[in-house]
Amino acid sequence: MLVTQLRRFLTVPIAKKDRNSRFSVAFWFSLSLCFAVSYIALGLPQAFSNEYVVGDNAREYVSWMYRYSNPELFPHDLIADYFQSVTPIGFGALYQVMSGLNVDPVLLGKILPMVISLITTGYAFAVCMQILPVPMAGFLATLLLNQSICLHDDLFSACPRDFIYPLFLVFLYYLLRRSLLGVMLLIALQALFYPPIAFIDVGILLLRLWDWQNGRLRFSQDSQDYLLCATSVGVFLVAIVPYAIKSSQFGPAITAAMARTIPEYLSGGRVNYFHLNPVSFWLDGRDSGVLALISPPQLFIGLLLPIILRYRSRFPLTQQVTSGVKLFKPIVLASLSMFFIAHAVAFRLHWPSRYTHHTFKIVFAVAAAIALTLMLDAAFHWLQQPTNSRLKGRQFFTLGTAGMVGAGLIIYPSSLKVFPKTPYVVGGAPGLYKFLQQQPQDSLIASLASEADNIPVFAKRSILVGREYALPFHTKYYAQFRQRMIDLIYAQYSQNLNQVVDFMHKYGVKFWLVERTAFKPEYIANNKWIQQYQPAATTAMAKLQLYRTPVLSKLMKSCAVFETESLVLLKAECIQQAKSSHSSSKIGVGL
Known about the structure:
Rossmann fold, two-stranded antiparallel sheet, 591 residues, 27 helices
């Protein structure tokens, strides 16, 4: 009978030393890897489409890593020093080792998604099998999780957060296997690669020590649970302290009260954290919401699992669900606890959404896969009941519905305009990068142009400021950064040549990159990033509206050393020479 054969192939649990079970595991696991590889393969062409392609956020973490191969790069560079200090130790060590093997950091960032995806897929499959030993459920879990990850920049970013999924899934696997050594090792690795997720690990282990049963609080009677928790907390503290000390060089972290007073955190700002809509803020705000970036909607099928487990008699396969399913509860509670703690101490523990965004995706994906498998098996069981006159109609409807649901899950990505989401940035000025590479390694470029963000990673030269690096997390760093921006705006739109030269001397500027449209009022008016730095932005715009010509605009031809259709690179030495001759030429002197 067709239904019996389908049930045996799709929902029958595996058995030890069974040949058919080994084939089923091999088939569904191979299929899981195929889909994972295909999703990554869709993003690779863009990664290698141009010589100058890099992950959007990777510019922050990867550019300074060229110091590993050349310690003379980025000397006394505020931006490089800051991002080196906040880069997790393990993440930096990985790139340092690979740099020692002559692997370019940008190239490594493009290769890692494939490795990370395969590890994530393998352990997601294994974790699901620990809870429900049905290979198809493992396939569905990996399918949903990989689709969810690829819908956001959780895999292609070349940032520390890419390691959350493989490390957390490996942690869950060893926890389900009750491996003391494995759990301790993974907590250490998570603290070294992405510290926030290690807090959740500790919370899970603490919550496993007790449970609420029949209205009473019951503590674990297993001494191994206490040993596992105590040793893991010790490992966590040993691993996290060095990073806490290292990242505090530019601290302390900005407080919520302070953040509410600066435009960077308000609507339209660089961070855009505080939303006017409280529902959005707490529910789906990218950095503040408890369900931030939880998609696709199929993940929420996982919410049906508690209901299904409550009515076990109607779902025969629930008998095969192991006690591992109880792990979902401490994961959710630990994630929610850290979410609210992160809100309470904002922003000392980074963004609150980071504590639910990733772990919820994993829980929902595995729970949804198990729920779908249980419901499909229940449907097969229903079809195998004593025959009646409507048996064929039952089969047609049930199998047709199951087929459409399965096909919908598989082909879902093809219905999206963009899949996978690959946040790659293509450098827009190759000639500029090559020119700057020929300049002294201590060259510092001042610019308000967006292209300046690409200079550190592609030209390997320092910049004074850049929008991508304007992260207002630590007070000591951002106070200096903000002052640089204000000074730069005043200097770029000044009519006083002395002010321009004094600015260059103050910061050691060697080159000044200017966009050709930079001296039009709308250039400032339409730039939300520049508008954050008041009153400098308003003052500069007012001067342009009054047709007061800045000094730099008069020197764009005589001091240009490199030009493109939209950019002009001025040499600081030329500007300084203009000062020495201004008394005779009268160029650029103004009040």
